[in-house]
């Protein structure tokens, strides 16, 4: 699982395997399926000459590179207290700070981005603006959604928060584990803003947060090989882009969010879509796979009561 794939091996116009660090080439029996996303697959794993012969990268990837794909900053919080004591919800929250006469789009851009592309937001350049700043956040409480969480971690709760930002706001980030002072300071400000948003939504949590871990677009770059959180931007033009294909070339297929959409629910569907291309939609192997998938879902619906609501 942790094998550091450095490149895709192409022979006579077909992908035949992967090069794995110092271990050499691992050859595929049939095909190679990349779940690393379009950006990493086209820009890092395939040779540029091969990409050029394919007609270039997908148009959606070019557009994301020209205008900037969505970058996010996320934080994980550990809190003292159970879900019941803290009254944490099992639903997600989208919190938007509105100003007078603003619509949603205006409020979002004002509170997240600078006045012009490439310019930092005011709260990163002015202490006065930072003291007054409020940022929009997505907020979720995984511990409140897991019925077994209290048994595993009694008296503890967890919270996840996400907001939008840009990698360039952090200046010269430096290598992982040796980040520069500017990076650390910008990250500290975002952490304080997220805490401000957390306490604004749940004032009962003040003084009970015992753990904070903040990830940035540069964290994505280190672990995922790209700064974008969700791969290609999910706008209308991306879904209408015919150059985003499951089969990149003979022997190479894409799967994951870039061939369908992001989110947990869509990933089994993306996997089935890719499998149908690899195996053939009318093949016996794909029919057997579809049968197993349907049987598993039906069994969960009929017999697994783990996540079923309690009867009154």
What would you say this structure looks like, in words?
This protein has helices spanning about 40-45, 50-55, 60-65, 85, 105-110, 120-125, 125-130, 140-145, 150, 180-200, 215-225, 235-240, 265-280, 285-305, and strands at about 5-10, 15-20, 25, 30-35, 70-80, 95, 135-140, 155-165, 210-215, 245-250, 250-255. By secondary structure, the protein is α+β, with helices and mostly antiparallel strands. Strands 6-7-8-5-9 form a five-stranded antiparallel β-sheet. A three-stranded antiparallel β-sheet has the order 1-2-3, with no helix packed on it. A three-stranded mixed β-sheet has the order 4-11-10, with helices on one face. A hairpin with a 4-residue loop joins β2 (about 15-20) and β3 (about 25). The relative contact order is 0.15.
Helix content: 25-40%
Order of H and E elements: EEEEHHHEHEHHHEHHEHEHHEEHH
Instruction: Output the structural class.
Output: alpha+beta
Widest sheet, order of strands: 6-7-8-5-9
Contiguous helical run count:
14
Distance between the termini: 44 Å
Radius of gyration: 23 Å
Mean pLDDT: 89
Main β-sheet: number of strands, strand sense, barrel status? 5 strands, antiparallel
Percent strand: 15-25%
Number of strands: 11
Uncertain segments are none
Large-scale geometry: globular
């Amino acid at each position: 699982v942790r094998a550091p794939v450095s490149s895709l091996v192409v022979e006579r116009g077909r992908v035949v395997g992967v090069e794995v660090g110092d271990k050499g080439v691992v050859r595929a029996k049939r095909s190679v399926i990349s779940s690393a996303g379009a950006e990493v697959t086209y820009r890092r794993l395939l040779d540029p000459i091969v990409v050029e012969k394919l007609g270039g990268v997908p148009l959606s990837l070019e557009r994301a590179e020209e205008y900037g794909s969505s970058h996010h900053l996320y934080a994980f919080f550990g809190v003292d207290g159970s879900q019941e004591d803290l009254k944490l919800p099992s639903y997600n929250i989208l919190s938007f700070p509105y100003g007078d006469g603003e619509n949603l789009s205006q409020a979002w851009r004002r509170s997240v981005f600078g006045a012009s592309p490439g310019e930092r937001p005011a709260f990163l350049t002015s202490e006065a603006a930072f003291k007054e700043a409020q940022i929009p956040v997505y907020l979720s409480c995984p511990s409140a959604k897991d019925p077994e969480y209290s048994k595993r971690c009694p008296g503890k709760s967890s919270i996840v928060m996400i907001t939008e930002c840009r990698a360039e706001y952090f200046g010269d980030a430096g290598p992982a584990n040796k980040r520069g002072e500017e990076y650390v300071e910008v990250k500290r400000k975002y952490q304080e803003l997220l805490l401000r948003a957390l306490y604004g939504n749940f004032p009962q949590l003040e003084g009970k947060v015992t753990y904070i871990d903040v990830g940035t677009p540069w964290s994505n770059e280190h672990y995922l090989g790209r700064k974008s959180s969700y791969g290609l931007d999910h706008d209308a033009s991306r879904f209408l882009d015919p150059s985003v294909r499951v089969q990149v070339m003979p022997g190479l297929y894409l799967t994951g969010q870039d061939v369908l959409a992001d989110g947990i629910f869509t990933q089994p569907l993306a996997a089935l879509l890719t499998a149908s291309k690899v195996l053939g939609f009318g093949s016996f192997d794909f029919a057997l796979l579809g049968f197993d998938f349907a049987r598993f879902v039906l069994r969960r619906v009929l017999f697994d009561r783990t996540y079923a609501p309690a009867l009154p």
